[in-house]
Description:
Elements: E1 5-10, H1 18-33, E2 37-42, H2 47-55, E3 59-62, H3 71-83, E4 86-92, H4 98-106, E5 110-114, E6 127-130, E7 148-151, E8 178-182, H5 191-199, E9 207-212, H6 219-226, E10 232-236, H7 241-247, E11 250-254, H8 258-264, E12 269-273, H9 279-287, E13 292-296, H10 302-313, H11 316-329, H12 334-343, E14 348-352, H13 358-365, H14 368-373, H15 382-394, E15 399-407, E16 410-419, E17 425-429, H16 439-453, E18 458-463, H17 468-476, E19 480-487, E20 490-498, H18 501-504
Parallel strand pairs: 1-2, 1-4, 2-3, 4-5, 5-6, 6-7, 8-9, 8-11, 9-10, 11-12, 12-13
Antiparallel strand pairs: 14-15, 15-16, 16-17, 18-20, 19-20
Amino acid sequence: MMSHTLLIRADGGTQMGTGHLMRCLALAQGWQEKGGEVLFVLAWETTAIEERLRQEGMQVAHLVGVEAGSEGDAAATAVLARQHHAWWIVVDGYHFGGAYQKQIKDAGFSLLFIDDNAHADHYYADLVLNQNIYAQARLYQAREPYTRLLLGTSFVLLRREFWPWRGWQRPMPEVARHLLVTLGGSDSDNVTLKVIEALRQLVGEWEAVIVVGGQNPHYHKLATAVGDDPRFHLRQNVLNMPELMAWADLAIAASGSTCWELAFMGLPSLFIVLAENQALLADGLATEGAGINLGWFHHLTTERITTELGHLRNSPEARKMLSHKARAVVEGRGVDRVCQALCSGVVLRSRLVTKADMARLFAWANDPLTRQMSFHPTPISWEEHQRWFTVVLSQSGTLLTIIEMWVGDGWMSVAQVRIDEAGTVSINIAPEYRGQGLGTAVLREAVAFQHTILSLTKLVAYIKSENQASQTIFSRAGFLYEGLSLAAGQQCLKYVYTLTEDKVK
């Protein structure tokens, strides 16, 4: 458990989209889960959001009489960080450039800079996080040698209310009748009204929930537009977005930060570009097959919306493909990974083994130490490995996982973990990554990943008595020694892990 404070310097109100504050809230919730305290430092009053932050047990402070991103801003933020014994400072906003980062670093603090468009002339932060689908290292060539990059949708920050939905399986009806419309916190151009007009042209049975942001000035116009039509349900300041996304069969949304929530929930979505910073997101999701890009709102006609909706409503296969691709883009562990980077610097993720991994696993399996600690120590032939690999890939109850570690600005394969339908666990660290203390972190990552796929509540490991390294790894990961047992006709040690809700978190 930690007692350190995480200071988050983020703007709100009309100067910054609510999506930025919401992703900072997600990170703050993850920090709280690890036992830390959180202080939000704001320059603009945002009553509704501030109330929510305080309800979540977070402190809020305001900067008065300073320009956002200025030298005075950085100085005042550093003073607050010292007063609250902050460990890290997190900065999110378009006002903060290279000079601001340097001033924070020169004041002696560790700095995480959340960035979307590489707008700073130089990066002095310890960590730069760009969670967008288009994030690439070449955007950050002007950075310090110590600056580490966290790039891509593996680091998407999702709020606490979405975490229980990891592993949820979306039903796919023949005809999509439940529609969700969510066009951001303000929707100053009232594109929601255009969508409502398009929905009126849909044939068949349907109903739509229209989510209206707290800063939307057009609520009364929208209420007048839907009138007493029972097919429309206006909702403002919604707090149950995961439930609404689970209820819906299709969504029409702005291609802002909500697109990551929709992707995580596997909700087939049509995206509308409302601002310049949303265009690349919509293009990226469309390129991955994870959404339909309707383009810029001022070029969009009601006929186009109706046509695209009509096609998807009546094509379960098209919706299923969109859902599958979307879930592959955002699997929902970004907060964990960023907190790992803040706490220890070791950032891991799991992925399912593919055919492209066959040769890699063959080499790892025939490593001399691996064979020595195996219950079947003789070398494995390529033909035997091929047969085993094919069988395992075809078994829906067996989870064969590659664990990857974030190194520099990319993912490297560092281990393989296998969990069968009985919950038996085996782990193999790549020879080149042994001796780095990764074993326990790798095992914990695999256990969390299996919960989203297999949902097993009890896991077991059988370890040779001479394999001291594995005994240490499993013990530190929460496996309890249960005594002697037999595996493959040989006496061994049995370790058992019982998964509870607090361990899932």
